[in-house]
Amino acid sequence: MQIIPAIDLLQGSCVRLHQGDYNQVTRFGDDPVDQALQWQEQGAERLHLVDLDGARSGEPVNDAVVKAITSALTIPVQLGGGVRSAQRAEALLEFGLDRVILGTVAIEQPDLVSQLAGRHPGRIVVGIDARDGRVATRGWITETEMEASALAQQFEGLGLAAIISTDIATDGTLAGPNLNALREMASSSSTPVIASGGIGSISDLLSLLPLEPLGVNGVIVGRALYDGTVVLKEALQAVSDGRLQDPSSDRNGMTPC
Predict the structure, then answer these.
(1) The pTM is what?
(2) Tens of pLDDT along 173-196?
(3) 8, 53, 167, 204: the active-site residue
(4) Architecture of domain 2-247 in this structure
């Protein structure tokens, strides 16, 4: 299971929102490039960026920072937030991003997801953000009646790189992941699932390992890394050790990577 540090960008700074509330912002630094390099140096194999300005307004406020990060890093970088057209998605891929994440358009323009997945196999991710099992869009401001698991099923067989399943109620709280929601999401689709929201300790990370055989193969960690309740190097080692000790993660005598 891959541990993916997150950098949330708001007006060029590293921040975190509490449960997606733009009125509850904690700033962690004004140099996202330096922060990205720190996560890479500590062993991260992938970086997750969120353009919060883009998610809220659809405007590309943070492009200069995104370009600087992709130029500075050697590990793959993925980004979500405000990607609402084919032109925008393809421009981001040209910046050097490995993957782009489609959130709002996944429910508003599902055909666009199909088109982009066909043109860029293995580089398109669908981000499904839910509160009480129902999808929220446009920076979590707009709530819909669509069930998160039903939305995931719509994209079955498209060759998506992953689905990022974010539980809004736990995001930024450090209260632990919503395991039931993740289990339902992973059971609804054969697309790999990346967990997001609520990670506050190494124990929380280890609680995800039993879901790995279902297809939960990554986890995004944000606030816990900045607060220091999770140290990346220690977390990487703990997950590696935990997988070796968990019989359910042993497939045909081989430990998955």
Answers:
(1) 0.88
(2) 788 999 999 999 999 899 999 999
(3) 8
(4) Alpha-Beta Barrel (3.20)
